Every structure is written in structure tokens, then in C-alpha cells.
Amino acid sequence: MSVNDPITPEPLLQLGLGFMASKTLLSAVELGVFTVLAGGGRDRASLAAEVGLHTRSSGDFLDALVSLGVLTRDADGVYANTPAADLFLDRAKPSYVGGILEMANARLFGFWSNLTDALRTGAQQNEVARSGAPFFVTLSQDPVAWRNFLNGMNGVSTPLAGALAADFDWTGRRHVIDLGGALGAVPAAVLRANPDITGAVFELPPVQPVFEEFVAAHGLTGRLAFHGGDFFSDPLPEADVYVMGQILHDWNLEQRLVLLQKAYDALPEGGTLIVYDAMIDDERRHNTYGLMLSLNMLIDTEGGSEYTVADATGWLRTVGFAKVEARHLTGGYSAVYATK
Ligand SMILES: C[S@@+](CC[C@H](N)C(=O)[O-])C[C@H]1O[C@@H](n2cnc3c(N)ncnc32)[C@H](O)[C@@H]1O
Fold this sequence. Notes:
By secondary structure, the protein is an alpha/beta fold.
């Protein structure tokens, strides 16, 4: 932009009304538009009938998706997925990342309408407001919400798992345990790329049934194990690599230091803890996604937030790690590799 460019309100309006575009995409994922179109292009009437659109809405909704760049429409009026939508938003493909969008649609979109209350009070604005029980207990007691949450986590961590499997030097490592690893996207990617490594997820027991389905679907039964437990109160099973992905952002500083110290104490000499999160850049001005997610943690947790790369490296040195290396992963996500 040059100094001679007129100042216009459009960018502000676009930003302020951005929820319309967001919800259009979230509803398209919910309705399975991309999954249906993965089977081949459809005209408006047939697509509308398949996904259940009213005649009043179908034209505007489908053309809005064209305008947003996630569908195409040819001269004959046939709608099709863009290559990215086909790869990442078709539920039938292993590359599907729509789990996080389904979770955002079912939970976060509504909770974010209470952002102003969260900003004023510092109080959580999710299911916990009704249940009064801790977040993970509340969620795990609702089978639909629990599965939706775990699939959502899997949607976020699948691309990060690929980045970690490729970026970290796994040479000579024997056993990786993902602490709070949900369905095991990270160890699954590591095991696929390194046939000599075994792995496990250490998770709350109610994760196990959904985890077993995921492991079977990925052909990793027998190689990727499940340890049920609570990482605050139970001993950590032995491994030479631990992963804590999107764990520290759930908890307050005191709890984070407890978890990091526990991982350090349980690792052998030369063992590594990999921490990843949507870490905020140290200047706290560039990683918009990390800053937005930090506001999400305000809404969704009791004491959590995102944190900077410098915060993470500082905590890891404080608990005793000798070698601490920060790496950008993909999108708004960074990792820190901390070796004992
Ligand atoms: C935000 S999710 C992150 C999941 C996964 N690591 C990822 O990056 O997608 C946090 C996970 O921590 C697990 N968790 C929460 N409290 C736990 C505890 N006390 N012990 C073990 N796991 C826990 C939850 O079940 C949930 O799957």
C-alpha cells in the first residue's frame, strides 16, 4: 500500500464480517458437500438433493463456496471440488483435516459468541459453564462431543505429524510416547516413516475406544499401543522420545512446569521431549493464528493460553534440559526439541 492509496473501510468490514465466510465453509463440511463432490461433479439440483439443501438456499450457498475458492462451477453449471478441498475436506480420504472444522462448527463457533464475556471476566465459556465439572471430564461423558473433539484434534495434528516425522532426526530412537496424544496422529506418522520405532499414546482412559478404531484403520494395531492414565497423577511409561502436542496450552504456568519437569525426570540421558503448539512469535505481532488460538484457550480452558517460543525454551531450560532447539513446523505451529 502506498501513501497515496485512499483509506477505505473495506478491510475492516471484511474482517468484521469474516464469520460469514467461516460459517459458510463450516456448514459445507457439516453437510458433506466436499465428500459428495469427491465422487464426481454434480449440478445444483442433484447436489442440493444429496446434501439436503432447500431450493431457496442452494444457489447462493454453492456459489458462495465457488466465490470463496473451495468449489468450482463450469459453464454447464456443474460444481466440483478444488484440488485442496478434494484432498483435505473429503471425509473418506486419510488426508482429511475437516475434523477440526467439524469440532469448530459444533462447539467453538457458538462459544466464540461469548468472547466479550470471556474478555471481561477471564472465565471459560464452553460446556463447563453448564456442567461445572473439569473440561476433559465433561467432554468425555458425551460420546458424540468426545469423538468430535478427538477427530478435531486429529485434523489439526495430522499435518503437524507429517512435519515432525520429517523434521526431527529419528535416527537411533527406539520408542516414542505421545503424552495426551489423542488418536496418535504423531506416533502413527513417525512409525510409518521409521519401521524400527515403536510407539504409544498416554491418554485419559475414555480415549481408548476411539483410539483403537483409528489404529486399526491405519494398520498399526500391535505397533502403536495405548497407556491409559492421568499425566498429572500417574507415572509416565518409559520412552526415549516424549511428545507433548497442544498440551501445555490447556494448562496454567504452574501446571505446565509440573508436566515438563515430570517428562524431564522420566526421560533417560539423551532422551528428547518434543513440545508443539501454535506458539506465538516472540514479538507477539506476527502469528495471528497463535494469538487467535490463545483467545480460544481463554474461552475453552480454565487457565490455558498459547505462549511464545521464548517462553517454551525458557521453561524447558528451567526444568533441566541441556539442549533446546526451536523449529517452525507448518502454518502457525512451532515445535521445541528439548534433549536431556
Ligand atoms: C488439546 S488435546 C491435544 C491432542 C494431541 N496431542 C494433538 O496435538 O492433537 C489435549 C489432549 O490431552 C488429553 N488429556 C487431558 N488431560 C489429560 C491428563 N490428565 N492425562 C492424560 N491426557 C490428558 C486429552 O484427552 C486430549 O486428547
